[in-house]
Amino acid sequence: MPISFNELVDDVMRRKPETIRVFLAFQMRCVGCPIACFHNVADACREHGVDPDLFLSALSAAT
């Protein structure tokens, strides 16, 4: 199942731990953050000023 913008950050990292390195590479310190269970991928990109399409592509390539 591909990763979508609507998935919660925590769910993505738990389901596909190989994506954690992508979050870190984009300087997104979502690993262990208490907000990760509330923010979806789109929210996290907006909060961190990351291009959502580029980020989603990187997440997909990591899996």
Automatic annotation (TrEMBL):
Pfam families: DUF1858. Gene3D superfamilies: SP0561-like. Transmembrane segments: none annotated. InterPro entries: CHP03980_redox-disulphide (IPR023883), DUF1858 (IPR015077), ScdA-like_N_sf (IPR038062). Residues 3-55 form the DUF1858 domain. This is DUF1858 domain-containing protein.
